[in-house]
Structure formats: C-alpha cells, structure tokens
Amino acid sequence: MPNWSTACLDWETRIVSQRSLIPFAPLFQSEAEHALEVFKSLRVVDLPGQPTFGEVSDQWVFDFVAAIFGANDPETGKQLITEFFLLISKKNTKSTIAAAIMLTALIVNWRANEEILILAPTIEVAQNAYKPAAAMVRADPELDANAGVNGFLHVQDHLRTITHLSNKAALKVVAADTDTVSGKKAGRIFIDELWVFGKRPNADAMLREATGGLVSRPEGFVIYASTQSDEPPAGVFKSKLDYARQVRDGQVVDPQFLPVLYEFPEQMLKDKAYEEASNFYVTNPNLGRSVSQQWLEREFIKEKTGEGSGLQTFLAKHLNVEIGLNLRANRWPGADHWAAAKDTELGSLGHYEALERLLERSEVAVVGIDGGGLDDLFGLSVLGREPAEIEVEFEIDGVKSTRRMKRWLSWSHAWCHKGLFKLRPKLVTRLETLQAARELTVLDDPLGDVATIIEHITRIKDMGLLGGVAVDASGLGEMEDALDEIEVTQEAGLLVAAPQGGWMMSSIKGAERRLASGLLKHSGGPLMNWCVPNLKIEPTATGIRATKQSAGDAKIDPAMAMFNAVTLMSRNPAAKGGPSIYETRGLRMI
C-alpha cells in the first residue's frame, strides 16, 4: 500500500515558481501511464489542425490526469483518492479538460453498464462539456462507431450521451436545471462550475444524490471544478473550498481528497500583486496557450478605469481573487481593515462563547439594534470596552504622536422570519450558512427576535455592564414596550436614538478609524463578513451616509446595528453601572 499525503505545505512557493501543485507521484505509475496514453491521444477539435492533448497541453494537465487515474489500485480495483477539487481561472480550458478526462474514464472503464457523469449547473455549461467530448470521438475513426469499422463509441447528441458499445457503459452530460439527478448510480463524476451550485438552495442534497453511486463503486471518484464565484463564496462551494484549503495547508489530514487550487498566496493578495500583469500567470497555468496575456492586460485596464462591467468580477473570474471585503469602489473604507481586525481569542471560540468572553473582558457594554420588516434581518450588536488602555500611534500632517486609548470589542447576531427564505430565494444558501454558524436565528414567531434580544440586554444589565441601548427611533415599535419592562428607558438614560442617514457620519468614520488603528476588534464570522461588504457609502449634501450596495438581497442591518452601538460607545459611558452621562429628558439624539 503506497504512503502519501495530499497536503501541499509549500504551495505558495510552488505556484509562484510554476511547479506542480500535486506533491506526490502517481500512486500506481502503470495506471497513470495507461490513462495518459488515452488522454494524450484525444484531439482538441477547436484548435487549428486539431492537435492532440499530448501535443498542446501543459504539464500541469498531465499531472492532474495522472493523479486521478494513477490512484486506482490495479490489484484490488479500489480508488485510493476519491475526491479532487480543481480551482482555476476562467478560459484555462476547464470544461474541455473535463470532457477529455471523463471520456478517458469511459474508455478505460471495465464495469459493464457503468454510468459516467458530467454534472453541470445549467444547460449552457453542460453543452460546454458535451460538445468537445462528442467532437473528440468524431475526430477519431478508431473511436467513432459511425466512422470506422473498429469504432466502439456511439454518440447521441439529443441525449448528450456517449455509449461504449462493448460494455454498454455510458458517459452522460447532465444539466442540473433541466435534468433530474435522482437515482443516478454513476461511479465516476465530474461536477463543473461548483460556484454556481453554491448559490442554489438544497444544492448539497442534490450533489449527495448525484454522487450516491460511489457507495457501491470502489473504483469511483468525483472531481469538483470551478472558477471563483462572482459573489462572496456561499453554500456548497464555500464549504468545499474551505475544506480544500484546510487539506492543502495540512490543517485537515485527508489523503483521499486532493486539492489543486490556483490562487494567489496571502501576501500577494495583501500587496495587491494580482494587479501586476507580470503575475497573471499565477492563477492562469494555461497562459500563452488558451489564455492571452495581452487580452488579460487590456481587459484589466478597462475594468480598472471603469469602462468594463466590473473590476471585482474580472478579478474573481480571470485571476481567482475571492470577492470579499475590499473590492467594491464605493465600499465602506472600514471594509479594507475588517478581516485584519478579527480578535484572535474571540475568533477561536464558538459564536455564543465569544459573547461570553467579550463580556468578561469588558468594563462596560452597549447594545445597538437595527431591523426592518419580515423581508429583512433584525440585527443586534454588542460592543464592549476593555478596561486597559493601549498605546496607539497617530500621524497628523506628517507629525507622529501616540495616545493611550481603550479598545472596543464587537459581537453581532441576526434574526429573520422563515418567510424570508421564500421572499428572497437567492439568499437561501447564504441564510443557511449563517444559520449553521449559529449567527442567524430563523423564527416562526415574528416577535421571537424581540424576546431573545431582551434576554441578552437583561443579562448584560444584571451583570452591571450595560451602558445603554441605541436604536433607530423610527423602528422601535414593540421593542420600546419590551425595553420598558426591564427598565431600559429614556428616563433612566439607557435608551437613546442613534442618528440615522447623513447624521450617522461620525459613527461610520469613527468605526473605520478604530478598525484601522486596532482599537476596534470583532469576533469574526460569516454574518458580518457578508454584511460589511454590502455597505455602500454615498455622499450627501453635508457628508456621507451608509446604504446597501444593491436593493433587496444585500442585507446590512447587523452592520447598521454596529454603527448604532458605536454612536453610543463614543459618548464614553461609565463603567460598571456608574453614573449615566445621558440626559433623562426624553428620547434624544446623540
């Protein structure tokens, strides 16, 4: 039995120096060579002269094919590496390579009546894989049953199926949006454009159904292939990508899973080295073959100057730069510092454990609340202030100085009514991800959010930490009555109306300055990682205001709740239940 690891701890060095991202030789060399002989003989029909893959492919393609087929034990027939994940930039012939790999699988297959499957999210993507596969067969008389006396592959375009006439095995290309995947018993499966599946509700269940045949196929494997998503990764794509990175980095030991991820090293992302044309090769291993350096350079300049359809989409699709917190031109500037502001301790804890630790570390805590109707989120932000001062360095007009200040800690949660899943179907996978992380509570009772928020506020108050609750006065509703019951009122100086619209500018800018200087830390997590990049900053007649990047699906309520909390904490509430600094005459703007 061979011994191997699918971790690639030096991948950053390898990818920059254009070395293989597969850190081991094929487990069974004879099987790899046999499959490569078939693969290399297939023709790339859409290139001049119809050359073979052996004549035009780069070494990374051969390494990937060898790793797949070379993992099959010829004595037992068992596939020792059963899952593969390929993340590669657009136009690197991913779908054509998929077609050739699965056609190779059909040719070398020994099981009678086997089903070999390419699963695509849409019929357009399915055609991208089927058409080159069918063309490869028709270009070779030794394969095409309709062209030569020795041909053994029968092409059926109307079924998107290629059948092996000797053993009746078939390669089928299925579009998930038109064809059913229920009852599939495929032993070898290629799942194309996983990022699209990541946007779909119940995609995980569908993929489990499609790959169910692997249970009884010891020789089986599944290959996931994708470009980066045109939105922050979500759903099954995010789950699989996160797992692939963990395996690659040695955080998870899984020798049956092989990740091959063409993405920029972390330092190059921080330095924005992906914007240098000389680095485009990092995520485009086919550069100079199927990808034009000149075209990439021209398109990048167009997007950079605002003449294209969108810089962030170009970077995601052609350079595999994950869309996250800092790619939108009109983004909130604090987004640039959000990821780096994650508190190490809070980020290592569970969601509710992080809140407990935040309160333990704080001398005072304030609460910000913001929410809309039943088609929106209801956001809660708890902002704590640590008792110890830290020294912060400032530079004003070229003059550096230091100042001692106290650090703030932020924790966020959201609620939504179950009806939101129907009202916003595009958000379903996102909401399911947040719910799984325990950062979103889905309610049957429309008032369930109020009851839980009151529980949190009551506990903070009973601990002697509550410095106040800041809300949007126009959205109080039943919340004000509930707060009255726990004596968090205007008269007590604990309930205040945070300014909204352009009047919130001080809080917005204050939060971003604290993030940049390390004076505002947060617990991390997918909720705010989603909401923060959804913030759009617009100029007003007297300043700026925060709004959504797009209507409907771009939720920002938890982020607005944080700004409300920042407004309150900026007033420096007294620690441990000391005298309030707020006036007691009515609900006032601060």
Most strands sheet? 8 strands, mixed
Measured as a percent range, the helix fraction is: 25-40%
**Low-pLDDT sequence parts:** 577-590
Q: How many DSSP E strands?
A: 17
Outline of this structure?
This protein is of the alpha/beta class and 590 residues long.
Polypeptide structure, described:
- The protein is elongated, with a radius of gyration of 28 Å.
- The chain has 22 helices and 17 strands.
- With 590 residues, it is α/β, with parallel strands linked by helices.
- Mean pLDDT is 88; it is low at 577-590.
Give the topology, please:
Elements: H1 11-16, H2 29-41, H3 53-56, H4 59-69, E1 83-87, H5 94-108, E2 115-120, H6 123-138, E3 153-156, E4 161-164, E5 170-175, E6 188-191, H7 194-197, H8 203-210, E7 221-226, H9 235-248, E8 257-261, H10 266-270, H11 293-304, H12 311-319, H13 335-338, H14 344-347, H15 351-361, E9 364-371, E10 378-396, E11 399-417, H16 420-423, H17 428-436, E12 440-443, H18 448-462, E13 466-471, H19 478-485, E14 495-497, H20 505-517, E15 520-522, H21 526-534, E16 535-539, E17 544-548, H22 557-569
Parallel strand pairs: 1-7, 1-8, 2-5, 2-6, 6-7, 9-13, 11-12, 11-15, 13-14
Antiparallel strand pairs: 3-4, 4-5, 9-10, 10-11, 16-17
Helix pairs in contact: 2-4, 2-5, 5-6, 11-12, 20-22
